[in-house]
Amino acid sequence: MDEPESAPAPESAPESGAVRAAAAGPRDWTDDHVARWLPVLPALDPDIEGAVTRMKKLSVHFRRVREKSLADFDLERHEFDTLHKLAGRGGTATPSDLAADLDLAPASVTGRLGALERRGFIRRTPSTTDRRRVVVELTPEGKATWLGAMDVLGHEEERLLGVLGKDERALLNDMLRRIMVVAEERGGAAWDAP
User: Fold this and answer.
1) φ/ψ of residue 134, rounded to 5
2) DSSP string, 72-124
3) Which of 15, 74, 109, 152 is a Cys-bridge partner for 99, taking CB atoms 3.0 to 4.6 Å apart?
């Protein structure tokens, strides 16, 4: 809810757990955001607004890190996505498997595979069990490029979540899972993995 600024929260406003915790430690941008909106929307739950805003900002941050990583490895987003789906299948798949994983028409995948093959990231070979089929394999160079791009984001995720202890990370993961279960009940097929 990034809206125009308004007056700060009155001092008599009841404090939530998040506001009390923020007052005890360093404040972030979201603390000020919530404080601006409490007087405008008195029914606003500061804990919900704080959590949702922080998740949104973290998502944007991770997206920026990923895009920078892709640029550093000279990868387009669609190239990375294709390598990622192929790696997720153990480095070997059929074009129809990849089309299904990427939710694309087979002709679109054929074009992607041609470009990745020219760059040396994949190779296409006839299937050993059915000569009419093609098998797509991740090459060592393709795997190294995919892993390099993945490592940048992985290090940033570990850096940020590393401020939490192991039990705290497990608790956060469990709480987010409970929220996602409810979201997925309503969202259905719209909740595919990134």
Assistant:
1) -115, 145
2) HTT--HHHHHHHHHHHHTTTEE-HHHHHHHHT--HHHHHHHHHHHHHTTSEEE
3) 109
Phi, psi of 184 (to 5 degrees): -70, -30
Half-sphere exposure of 130 (CA within 13 A, CB side): 5
Asked if 169 contacts 75 with a C-beta cutoff of 8 angstroms, the reply is: no
The 10s digit of each residue's pLDDT in 2-47 is: 553 333 444 444 455 555 554 567 999 999 999 999 999 999 999 9
Helix axes 77-88 and 106-118, enclosed angle (nearest 10): 100
Tens of pLDDT, residues 51-66: 999 999 999 999 999 9
Q: At a CB cut-off of 8 Å and minimum separation 6, what does 33 contact?
A: 1, 2, 49, 53
Q: What is the pTM of this model?
A: 0.73
CA distances from 10 to 14, 44, 64, 107 (A): 9, 14, 35, 60
Distances (CA, A) of 64 to 56, 67, 81, 91, 102: 13, 5, 16, 26, 21
For residue 135, the SS3 value is strand
Report residue 25 CA to chain centroid gap.
28
Closest CA to 58 of 189, 163, 148, 186: 163
